[in-house]
Design goal:
It contains 14 helices and 35 strands. β15 and β16 form a beta hairpin. It folds into 4 domains: about 300 residues, Alpha-Beta Barrel (TIM Barrel), CATH 3.20.20; about 80 residues, Sandwich (Immunoglobulin-like), CATH 2.60.40; about 70 residues; about 130 residues, Jelly Rolls (Sandwich). The protein has an 8-stranded parallel sheet with strand order 5-4-3-2-1-8-7-6. The protein is globular. The protein starts with 10 loop residues before the first helix and ends with a strand. With about 650 residues, it is of the alpha+beta class.
Length: about 650
Amino acid sequence: MGNAQVYEAKWESIDSRPTPQWFKDAKFGIFIHWGLYSVPAWGPKGSYAEWYLNGLLNGDTARLQYHEENYGKDFPYKDFIKLFNPISYDPNKWADLFQKAGAKYVVLTSKHHDGFCLWPSDHSRGYNSFDGKANRDLLGDLNQAVKKKGIRSGFYYSLYEWEHPDYPENVPLYVDNYMLPQLKDAVQRYEPDIIFSDGEWDRNSAEWKSEEFLAWLYNNSNAPKDVVVNDRWGGETRFKHGGYFSTEYDPNSGFMNEEFFKRGWEECRGIGKSFGYNQNETLEDYNTSEELIRLLVDIISRGGNLLLNVGPKSDGTIPDIMSHCLIEIGEWLEINGGSIYGTTPNRIMQSDSIKFTLSKDRKTLFAFVEKFQEKTLKIRGVNASGEKRIQCLGSKKKLKWKNKGPDLFIKIPNSFINGLKPSPVYVLKIPVLPYLNDPEVQVSIKEEVAEISITDYNPMNTYLFEIGDTIINDFSRRYKKPFKITKPTMFHMQVLNKNYLPSNIITLPINILQKENGLVRETYIGQWDNCSQMVNENHTEESIVYDFTIDANNKDNFGYVFSGYLEINDPGMYEFQITSDDGSRLFINTDLIVDNDGLHGRQSKEGTINLKNTRYKIVVEYFERGGQETLDVKWRGPGFEWREIPAFKLFQKSD
């Protein structure tokens, strides 16, 4: 204990905590949405049944009509506590099912946005599973059963509530006297391995006192020292602060980057559309086990976890369509789990329709193939190594192979195909050369001179580099010791060793800046539907900045206009990309190149323009209206791929 890291109640300190490795290795977890909403268990197709109360409170015609016809117009939602009677709930059977499914962790809703608790919370005002017909600690019983199976156990907790008397009228009172004590009580009782926070979007993290809670969780609570949390701790925190990054019904988003791989990320979704059981969903609304196995493979190949939700009925039974699906996933994992658990993303995540994972020692590549063609399978961009034949998991036959240039050719005889059992995805186990880690390059700039050094230098490796805007295939300069650069430029490096595949080429800006560099950033305060409305108002502040990032002090209902000049040294076609939440636009001179305007969640848009060797006026407009905020501006052009626009390319004046 004396040597344990102590975390301060500041994001900078909390974010420095690495995501525990067990979570990154686990890959597959079970989410469970269960509560009073499981009594009506109803919502329009495509909606979340657990938002039943929200529909009643906000005049949703379909839910109001259903409620009146089935329970009466004056039947209060809280009276569902008298009907929520989980007589068939058997936590040991649930745990057994989750183990058969191959899940490595389980997350149960301890309290959803309706405020009903699945444990005897002293702060719930008589509104928990011990007070009603259930008369049972539902969370505690499952927590115990799951841990007995050797499965990690945790819970979901909603920070905000739809009907609490202090919320949102008196947020400090709600947080200090109710939310934080209640959440801490659940932690101390159940010692969770994982906490899935939600409802964070309604306030920023300072109002939720999230930094204080997480510092307490890591430093002083009963939770295991390798407890894992997600990133939902305030309107500004998702994909930025907390623990692992969380997506929802969004596994194919284009936002994966190095920070996602470093933190770890998790896609959560239901087997159907709804998280809570929705009796209005039919067979066609559910994914098949085959579809979910392919989804699992896709997510794992990109370095993520899948948190797959089941919605039990109010009596505590898990619908057959869900349990059968889980068992079939488990049967596939029983054969192919070695390609899933404890793996890392391959540098090439996909080649044509084939996806990959890599063993931790990087000596085994797992290739996921949905269908084999007779005679030969070609995998572009992959070479095998050694003398071993390639194995297909679940088959005793070994396959011959040959490298031809950058590609791998595997012989697929008819006898092999005929001997395969049907599977949504087949896994090939391929011996490969391990690749080298990317070099850790340190750039220290002082008095307009940059010193370049390698902090993880290994004399057994060869470090080759080049300097310039574009990447040259054949690096000619060799790093032996720290050296200096006196002009702004781009630095490119790759590490080689004859016994390994080369590292990635890393590219860093050498931002030796002059007083002429920078952008003018105008700050706006208000609420708008689009950028045009914002720029028609007066800005409140003006400053000089050197990139297109958001000031951490701005939380909700604000916007920026960045303006300056972009220097082009290599003429040709350039593509610009803006990822934003909410709207954004990018102009070159007076031309609108990227239009990502309007109210929306995090999304990316691109645009292309032919540029000559000169400076161009560049303007980026951005506004944020409540909830999450994101702004990320990138470009690519002749000789280089997507990267941030370096500060030395941005100027306040045209010459």
